[in-house]
Amino acid sequence: MSPHLDAVRVERVWAAGGVVRIAACTRELTVACPDCGRGSARVHSRYSRTLADVAVGGRPVVIGLSVRRLFCDGPGCGRRTFTEQVEGLTVRYQRRSPLLQHLVQMAGVLLAGRGGARLLQILKVPLSRTSVLFHLMRLPLPAAATPRVLVGLR
Q1: What are the pLDDT digits (tens) for 66-97?
Q2: In the chain, what is the straight-line distance between the N-terminal and C-terminal CA atoms, in Å?
Q3: In angstroms, what CA-CA distances link 1 with 7, 12, 25, 104, 139?
Q4: What pTM, to 2 d.p., does this model score?
Q5: How would you classify the pairing of strands 39-40 and 31-32?
Q6: What confidence tens digit (pLDDT) does each residue in 95-104 have?
Q7: How many whole angstroms separate alpha carbon 22 and alpha carbon 11?
Q8: Quick one: pLDDT at residue 4?
């Protein structure tokens, strides 16, 4: 299986309608609060996230991931609850794995709108050219290099 799934417990894998589906849940570990950094294992609730991942064997992959919402018991921390994130698999508010998101961004950088959408279609990631351009526009601009020597022109 994929290395980024090592951090979760895979419960079931099946193919349905040309899509590989994976049911997984997070492991019962202590998770650090994103604000204060204090570890917590006290569960508030659970909910399911649906993530798209890179295709396997020419089939798109969809991961149904059960994640925990935890209480933060840090004194003075303004956050009461937080949701655990799985390193290498989930990013806050994202519906794609970081690996798939990187693939979409690189298709946008290399081929832009229509060409990027065509490449992603071949890779079983159906996105419109507008979506590819949107992801391209979200990328931060590279830092401009500062010239070391300025030569004056006469």
Answers
A1: 999 999 988 888 889 999 999 889 999 999 99
A2: 64
A3: 12, 12, 15, 21, 29
A4: 0.81
A5: antiparallel
A6: 999 999 999 9
A7: 8
A8: 79
Give the residue extent of every domain in the chain. Answer: 1-92, 96-139
Q: Find, among 81, 58, 85, the residue nearest to 69 by Cα.
A: 81
Q: Which residues of the chain have pLDDT under 70?
A: 1, 154
Phi and psi at 111, nearest 5°, equal -125, -5
Contact partners, residue 117, CB within 8 Å, separation at least 6: 107, 127, 128, 129, 131, 132
**Phi, psi of 93, deg, nearest 5:** 70, 0
Going by C-alpha positions, the residue among 140, 107, 139 that lies closest to residue 126 is 107
Predicted pLDDT at 27: 86
- Residue pair 26/67 in contact (Cβ under 8 Å)? The answer is yes
What's the chain's length in residues? 154
What was the pLDDT predicted at 141? 85
> CB-side exposure of 28: number of CA atoms within 13 Å?
3
Tokens of 90: 């989930």
Using alpha carbons, list the distances in angstroms from residue 99 to 23, 26, 48, 91: 18, 18, 20, 11
3-state secondary structure of 19: strand
